[in-house]
Amino acid sequence: MHMIIVGCGRVGSTLAIELENQGHQVVVVDRNPAAFRRLGEDFTGRTLVGVGFDRDILTDAGITAESAVMAVTSGDNSNIMIARVARELFGVERVVARIYDPRRAAIYERLGIATVATVAWTSNRILRTILPHDGATDWTDPTSTYQLVERRITGALAGKSVSSTPAHVALINRHGKADIPKSDTLFQEADVVHLLATSEQISSFDAHLAGHEGAHS
Q1: 164 and 111 co-located in one domain
Q2: Number of neighbouring beta carbons within 10 Å of residue 207
């Protein structure tokens, strides 16, 4: 996947290295060229000097609607500008912005922009958001039968009921508010859900998320 990371601080550089190691095409944007030293000598992705919400810079970075954009600069306003330009001008769906003021998070979630707070697990949280099918397991029972995982709802599942999926949805977080869903609760795009299910059920749920034809319940 084509990944654009704006901001090459601790979080941005960690993301860039991790995503490149996973085989993704990575472009890192920062207004300070010295910041790219955090990427190390082994980084083979592209680096661009500039402002991340500049349309020309994003175009030079190769942005398309199929890209993923991560805005992780040191400023809330810049990150939101980057996320909105990516979503509204280029039609990018996979967009996440780092937010230092948690009071703003719910506002931006209503705009369809996923946000993460400035906490120790920010990098992992962003990876879960950008790569919803590759999320890590949060918990496994002692028999290794059931797993607890987090997923973000895509357009492929939006409008479908919780009961239509193969995995048990234990919790839905929508616009910053968590709730236990009923069987007739309908998914909305960008909902963050917690699944308690077997590996097979999670794999089937991920197939639904990806919109693959023939995904079975």
Answers
A1: no
A2: 17
- The domain that holds 66 is classified in CATH as 3.40.50.720
Verify that 27 and 105 share a domain, yes or no.
yes
Question: How would you classify the pairing of strands 147-152 and 137-140?
Answer: antiparallel
**What is the residue range of 154's domain?**
133-210
pLDDT of residue 55: 94
Q: Say whether pTM exceeds 0.70.
A: no
* pLDDT computed for residue 134 by the predictor: 54
**Rounded CA separation 1/65 (Å):** 11
